[in-house]
Design brief:
mainly alpha; 2 domains; 3 helices
């Protein structure tokens, strides 16, 4: 037998072994995911745990979607309050400095 023919057969056997191992591992992963997900009903309403989690996360996303614009408005208002408090703080600092400079009787 020629060396190239032997190498070709070894390569073919290696490729087949690779695909068999890939199929076995994918089957094992699928089995584990089905155990995590709960019973799967493919044509009726979803009852597995992963689909319930997905629907719950989607509901949270929909219900909290209006928070973003409100937070932006709130940040704008709070920035104005902060600036006003800085003005009050500097005014109080000047008042305290003037009171301390006054002569005591």
């Amino acid at each position: 037998m020629n060396t190239f023919v032997v190498l070709m057969w070894l390569t073919a056997i290696g490729i087949v072994a690779l695909f068999v191992a890939l199929a076995l591992f994918l089957r094992a992963i699928n089995r584990e995911l089905e155990q995590i997900g709960g019973p799967a009903t493919r044509f009726f309403r979803p009852v597995n745990y992963l689909s319930k989690i997905r629907l719950g996360v989607r509901a949270i996303e929909v219900h909290t979607g209006h928070i973003g614009p409100q937070v932006t408005k709130l940040n704008t208002g709070l920035s104005a309050v902060r600036d006003g408090l800085f003005v009050i703080d500097s005014g109080l600092a000047h008042a305290i400095a003037h009171v301390q400079r006054q002569e005591r009787p």
